[in-house]
Design brief:
Chains A, B: InterPro entries: Fungal_SecMetab_SDRs (IPR051468), NAD(P)-bd_dom_sf (IPR036291), SDR_fam (IPR002347). Chains A, B: It comes from Serinus canaria. Chains A, B: It holds the Pfam family adh_short. Two copies of one chain form a homodimer. Chain A has one domain: Rossmann fold. Chain A is globular, with a radius of gyration of 17 Å. Chain A has a four-stranded parallel β-sheet, covered by helices on one side. Chain A is of the alpha/beta class and 190 residues long. Chain A contains four helices and four strands.
Chain lengths: 190, 190
């Protein structure tokens, strides 16, 4: 799916609808994201907008497109969590405003971390807005992983992080709605 | 100044340079901003990008353009604050992630509050990045004011808020670098 293309999103929603049918969608994981290296000296308006479009705006638009399916699933369940209906926004430790001082290496990725902070605000707004529908929303820092984006210096391989992430998702309940968690389930400061 | 136009920014920087000369610029207040009403149902990718460009990206670009003048002033002073060199990003209570639940009326301004949260992250990054230059950076919530944007329902007139704001700016020191304050100098949560 091309997350910045409305038609591409619509097509995928239709495909998912055909698969899940009347049961709706229980869990939407917004995992798409891009990065560029850009320090204060290097950052441009164009880069800021491109990264925001893919890492922040797209997550909101994809979520909006899947809302009817998430609401359908939520109507069939009780409580809150992935067993009913949940939106997981893949965020980053680099998005934590409180931890900026402690992570000066992240000052080389202005557009990325600013867009991820904005994504955390989307999580907070969705959590408040969709609570009455029984749909939970969190931001999740998956850890620094050896992916195309994470690179070789990352301390963890994807397969090491996945069991932890699945376990966190499995434990989600009303208490976690609107929170910012890492792959071990620890709360991160905004 | 048109804050989303590179040439317009350059022109104003040159004009300011001619006025301040070798003394440089002591205080940059990024006050430009726009708003549109957009709830979750109404928000579009286009509105998200337009508001981000004007309320977030422009502040970073204007700041970058004024950095040589701010650095010039910083070299002539000691300590931290508006007497030396400071960047004031006009933010909003609506940008506080922690206070989302308590401000449900703000759920009607998705693009605005998400962009202002991102602006707060810019404040944090600039505060960390420019500390060694002796340039301070804060986010300031000016209060809900009876302006074109604030509307008639706002509880305060502009002239009521200004003395408080000036007093806060006057008191700024190293302790406040990277903080989120309101017009009375109270710290707001991220």
């Amino acid at each position: 799916m091309d997350v910045v293309c409305e038609n591409s999103i619509k097509k995928v929603v239709k495909e998912v609808e055909e698969i899940v049918g009347d049961k709706g969608l229980n869990c939407l994981i917004n995992n798409a994201g891009i990065n560029v290296l850009a320090s204060l000296e290097e950052v441009t308006a164009e880069t800021m907008l491109t990264i925001y479009e893919t890492n922040t705006v797209a997550q909101l638009m994809v979520t909006k497109a899947f809302l009817p399916l998430l609401r359908k699933a939520a109507q069939l369940g009780t409580g809150m969590g992935c067993h009913r209906a949940a939106i997981i926004n893949m965020s980053s430790l680099a998005a934590s405003m409180q931890l900026v001082q402690a992570n000066e290496m992240f000052l080389k990725v202005y557009p990325y971390r600013i867009a991820k902070t904005a994504l955390n605000m989307i999580t907070r707004c969705l959590a408040a807005d969709l609570k009455s529908d029984g749909i939970l929303c969190i931001s999740l820092h998956p850890g620094w992983l050896q992916t195309d984006m994470g690179g070789n210096m990352a301390p963890m391989q994807v397969q090491e992080a996945i069991p932890g992430i699945l376990s966190v998702l499995d434990r989600l309940g009303e208490k976690e709605n609107g929170s910012f968690l890492d792959w071990q389930g620890e709360t991160l400061p905004w």
